[in-house]
Amino acid sequence: MNGRLTTLALTGAGAAAALAGRAVARRRAAHGTRSDHWLAVTVARPLEDVEGARALPEPLERLSGQVDLRFRAAPGDRGTEVLGRPRGDAVSREDLRVALRKAKSLLETGTVVQPDARPSTHPGPAGKVLQFVVRKSKGEGRL
């Protein structure tokens, strides 16, 4: 009996998360796109190191010509802010967000840091909900 209640509760939680995601998408559609807003990451490196690099990190280099990029000192001497926004519809905001995250990792560590293991390989409802949340978290928006 406890297993059924747990499954029912987790299925309900997954359904609630999906409905909440749809509500957020409807609100965004009603308020228009945020294509004019800049996406930003803070890199823990001085502005001179980031701007003076011979080339952009590969994820951003792939998008060159399709995005606008800016570099500025981060507040409080915390490194460099790398800002970007897509030009037109050639690149999605989600693709740019992922490229900025990867570029940050490359600039700070020299490699794109990956998690050691998948968060869940459980085949049940809880594992499916967790996999959905992890997939969604790599893109744009809030969970």
Automatic annotation (TrEMBL):
Record protein name field: PASTA domain-containing protein
Species the sequence originates in: Saccharothrix longispora
